[in-house]
Amino acid sequence: MTERTLVLIKPDGIQRLLVGRILARYEERGLKLVGLKLLQVDRGLAERHYAVHRDKPFFAGLVEFITSGPLVALAFEGPNAIAVIRAMNGATRPWEAAPGTIRGDFALEVAQNIVHASDGPDTAAAELALWFRPEELVAYPREIDRWVVAPAD
């Protein structure tokens, strides 16, 4: 099933010069990039993004960190894109993330775990709408898709 989902390369990924390496991993896997932007997140957007955690003790830290520097917002599309990206990212706790995953290779702490990805279809739809206007998500054919994605029956 083709899905669209959101990935954020957080400020630590930007500061550590990992954007190109991370983006390459998703593209090399076969995921289709349909949206990309570099932005400095304001407090309002950060609070809306993390609203589900508003009553948790770590909410303020999440907001502070995500607004501490620029980040890259990405929209990807592909078969089972949500599960594929979450597996590629690795466990939220980097010390539990397998080597070869983004967090397993680049992160040491939860507070600075390099990337965020939507955790399900409803979350993906809501997060994509929060970070991208509809016209910023681009549908286009790719010649390689016949080599990456099985034809629909």
Shape: globular
Percent of residues in helices comes to 25-40%
Known CATH architecture? 2-Layer Sandwich
Count of the domains = 1
**Radius of gyration over C-alpha positions, nearest whole angstrom:** 15 Å
Structural class, from secondary structure content? alpha+beta
Describe the structure.
The protein is of the alpha+beta class and 153 residues long. The protein contains eight helices and four strands, in the order βααβααβααβαα. The chain has a single domain, classed as 2-Layer Sandwich (Alpha-Beta Plaits). The model has no long low-confidence stretch (mean pLDDT 96).
Quick summary of this structure?
The protein has eight helices and four strands. The chain has a four-stranded antiparallel sheet, with helices on both faces.
